[in-house]
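Hey L., structure's done. Input below.
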Amino acid sequence: MEKNKTGKYLKYAIGEIVLVVIGILIALQINNWNENQKKTLLESQYLIRLKEEAKWNIQQIETSKQLYLQSSKEINAVINKIENNSQDSSMILDRPNYIHPWQLKTDTYDELVSTGTLNNITDLKLRDLLNQAESFSNFSDKQLENWRNIAVSHETSFIPYKNSILVKESDSTYYKTFLDFKKIEDDSNIIELLKYWSQGNMVFYKGINELNKIYADILNRIDCIEHNNCK
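Output:
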């Protein structure tokens, strides 16, 4: 300071500070880049899992749809035989008061929600579709539970018309329960119950098809995200 070098040292100090600040900013940028890369990789892994689960769920839904349709057709065939006084005894109906349940895979979505990391899925449209699928599935589960309760209450009406036959298959022998529709001809209440369950199966056939569309939309959305061409 005695030799009037204060200005030189001040410039040197400012330069050092600037270099330190620049170094910190560069380090922050690198750190942010690393974090973004980690998040991108994590999201990519979640998308792969969500895609596989959606494919599996679509297969399950398609199987269930066919079961609902088949059940409705079988019940309608029995009703037709009864109402037309058919003497054909080949038709065997096991459980008319039954709605086939299904089991979907939602482990990835459940993990994202339970850990509070659903925001790792950055695409808002995909998050909305995932929430729709979950809401629809929860609603369907409640409906299945309602129909199970109705099935129990209707069971006593069907019991008097159930018979068993001895079935032999390979090395096994067992009794198969079936509904003897010949005994039902004069019971209009049972016929109405059969129509009720035929319609019930069709309600689920049409309803679960909507869930199938949501999962198809999820697959399409993930595909466009992966190819970076979402609109």
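The chain has a mean pLDDT of 86. Helices lie at 6-83, 107-114, 124-158, 188-226.

-- N.
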